Amino acid sequence: MPAAVTVHLAPLPNHPPKQPPLPKPNAASLPQWNGLLADLSRAGRHADALAILPRLLAASDGVAPDRFTLPPALKSCRGDDGRQVHAVAAKLGLADGDPFVGNSLVSMYGRCGRVDDAEKVFEGMAGRNLVSWNALMAAVADPRRGLELFRDCLEDLGGTAAPDEATLVTVLPMCAALAWPETGRAVHGLAVKSGWDAAPRVSNVLVDMYAKCGEMADAECAFLEAPPGAGRNVVSWNVMLGGYARNGEAGAAFGLLREMQMEERGVPADEITMLSVLPVCSGLPELAKLRELHAFVVRRGLHLTGDMVPNALIAAYGRCGCLLHACRVFDGICSKMVSSWNALIGAHAQNGEASAAIELFREMTNACGQKPDWFSIGSLLLACGNLKHLLHGKAAHGFILRNGLEKDSFIRVSLLSVYIQCGRESLARVLFDAVEEKDEVSWNTMIAGYSQNGLPGESLQLFREMQSKKGGHWPSLLAATSALVACSELPAVRLGKEMHCFALKADLCEDSFLSSSIIDMYSKCGSVDDARVFFDRLKAKDAVSWTVMITGYAVNGRGKEAVGLYDKMGREGMEPDGFTYLGLLMACGHAGMLEDGLCFFQEMRNLPKIEAKLEHYACVIGMLSRAGRFADAVALMEVMPEEPDAKILSSVLSACHMHGEVELGKKVADKLLELEPHKAEHYVLASNMYAGSRQWDEMRKVRKMLRDAGVAKEPGCSWIDIAGKVYSFVAGENSLPEMHKVRKMWYSLEEKIRAAGYAPDTTVMLHELEEEEKVEALRWHSEKQAIAFGLLRTAGPTKVRVFKNIRMCKDCHNAAKLISKVADREIVVRDKKRFHHFRDGLCSCGDYW
């Protein structure tokens, strides 16, 4: 702050200073009254200006307002006064017949947010001109509607008037808001034709429009074409800097700032300059540049002009993860306002220092007596959500209720996020249902929250409510994406196709994020061919689309297709990233393509821009182990940059079971159970390995460890979608009304597959039971029930699709292979690890799961 503004200033008086008395015209001449009204309006004395009008109307010497009287009065209207002045204009016959007054009426209603009234006045005007159209275009809030009006304006005026400066600075921001660069270029052409492109305001808006549309090359051209001097002032430089910042072009932004400060340019940076360029500083690589900017700010004294630049510095240091410097900037602010506290609290919350953010909030409200605003509460809630601290979240909720902030949409959505992040969807839903007028963000947050927290059914149900326009909202792009994620978590390809149709109707399929979600949905529902058809029809494919399609082939065991698509990706000029290679390695692992996988892994490690992550090593170690190359797998585990995690150890243990490598398997099992003693699936793997090698004592030891640890094996649950309805089956339960039919179907299938060579594998049973009891328990594993139900309720070539929450056991896997043969049906089972496509007695996994 400036030195003159300190906390020692004398208190303000309890009443505002009196305005000087209104001058009285010497004569009742209308020009004097009009001049007085205009002067008062220009001086911002709107109440005094409006007080003149009744005196003028009450004048006894026959003075009547004319077309120059009402516009300044209308300019001073801020509420219902405008309707009264409109009534005066109508009574005098000036509202419809005089464009000067009519234009002022349109502007007044637009300024007051009454667009319908503005359009009514406009439609009733007899002599509309370019100013009339400009006023109406400025009044509308919807940019699409504004551009429609611009088109109508050009048609209406024809060649009688070209767009002027006011038209262009109104229309170009609409192009920016819609990210319509082609329309912006057309308007730019009109600006060149009319000669207004060199006007400073138009030039600046052109740069801003192109930058907001992501067309930085065009923005640079528009900036360079602006005439030096008055045409390219500090505002122009700031707009260009803001464009680079918005598009994440840090190097270009810093280069332009240096050019701006060159001696021959003579363009001094101001507060807005720093506020434009500081947002590009994000992450440790930009910390050095940020320190340079900080030094520049201090040299120019810009940190003394108010708290906006210091607050921006705090936020920038927070984005760079340097909280120490953020705190130093904060400590240097003489008079800390709530905005400075907000910046520091937000910086800590964004860097995972949730406890510190909460303590800062307490210090701000208790020790310093600052009253939090909506941003303070939002930062506090972000911290509570990141910390998953329900108690603090509830305390913040109480504070919000006590201070009447619960109606603020930003705070309401932040509260929803806290409860969702804390796993309390029911509390979030109570808060959501209590809101009468739900905005789009609230719907999106709740739908995404259900999907992220493993409640896909609830997510889809809420999406359908939104789709039926409950609350007046059509589903948004984010809601549609969340619904697609929910479909991929259920055996609900039919519902997924409905989401796909919705996206087509809403013209959303060319959105990169949504199109990738559609590919992912089909792939995770086992319909990878449908995913490929959609992928091939995409007009614009980015690297994400290619990677998601490659990964889709990978999870479905289609390794050759994944590699073929990767080759095509290279021919199309797309560069792979770490996720692309992860998909390739998964594909090679699931398809047993060891040599290809090793080649891709080496290829990736040779690329300087891609670093091999733990997930990449996990895929390669899994491939080597599955191929029985345990020495190579162990050697890779020893040289990898991180310690092997449970996923890697689990894959090695599974391979040890498959190859009978008990000595290594015992070491891996001990390490795995030490690392994650609470996971029952690890005990199951170890027990199966010992049972497979007939080491019964070791098997019993593992089972005893499981009991002693008090770890309960997660019950198997499977789902199947029949005609749009999802049915669930739990191992050993028979709550379905048609269960007697399911049992009858299974007994029939069992008889046929026994004849084809099936024998129950009771070694997968952990419980100490008699042999016949184990066989009976195996019959009613959840996926067997679901498969039998699917065959019962469907016919012909229909695929039977089943989802399971845990890994498919060896016995069920063997049974499913034979069922696909005797029933002559394709069966798709997605378990916790991967997809199994059973056809003609074979599985896509090659008997490795």
UniProtKB/TrEMBL annotation:
Instruction: Pinpoint the DYW domain residues.
Output: 757-849
- Which PANTHER family does this one have? DYW DOMAIN-CONTAINING PROTEIN (PTHR47926:SF383), PENTATRICOPEPTIDE REPEAT-CONTAINING PROTEIN (PTHR47926)
Name the record gives this protein: DYW domain-containing protein
* Presence of the UniProt keyword Acetylation in the record: no
One GO MF term on file is: zinc ion binding
Q: Where are the PPR repeats?
A: 98-132, 233-269, 337-367, 439-469, 542-576
**GO biological process terms, semicolon-separated:** RNA modification
This protein's source sits in the domain of life called: Eukaryota
Name the keywords, alphabetized: Repeat, Transit peptide
Q: What is the protein's species of origin?
A: Brachypodium distachyon
The answer on whether this UniProt entry bears the keyword Membrane reads no
